[in-house]
Design goal:
By secondary structure, the chain is mainly α. It has a single domain, classed as Rossmann fold (3-Layer(aba) Sandwich). β1, α2 and β2 form a beta-alpha-beta unit. 15% of the residues are buried.
């Protein structure tokens, strides 16, 4: 199964549990960000990290502190797993493209 492509995105967004073999996808994508709405211990992100090895850098976003009260959006933000956190993690791997005159 080839990695699916998403219009308007340079890198695919893939369902974590459907990925096999993970190192192949990691090399294809160049980097991996896993996002889990629970504690990281024993979670699928650990399997991705173990399977990927040195094929690509892996950033794991997960709930690391005891959650408090709030709306789902507030809790995701507090845990660092909201859309902004995912974008920060994903874009941390992106290298700025040199200006056209320098290519």
């Amino acid at each position: 199964m080839a990695p699916p492509r998403n219009p308007g995105r340079r890198r695919p967004v893939l369902p974590l549990l459907a990925l096999s073999p993970r190192p192949l996808y990691a090399r294809e994508c160049g980097a991996v960000v896993t996002v889990e709405d629970h504690r990281p211990e024993g979670a699928p992100g650990e399997a991705v990290l173990a399977d990927t090895g040195t094929a690509a850098p892996v950033t794991r976003l997960a709930v690391r502190d005891l959650p408090g009260s709030g709306t789902p959006a507030e809790l995701r933000h507090a845990a660092g797993i909201d859309a902004q956190a995912i974008m920060r993690a994903a874009t941390s791997f992106v290298r700025p493209r040199p200006p056209a005159h320098q290519r």
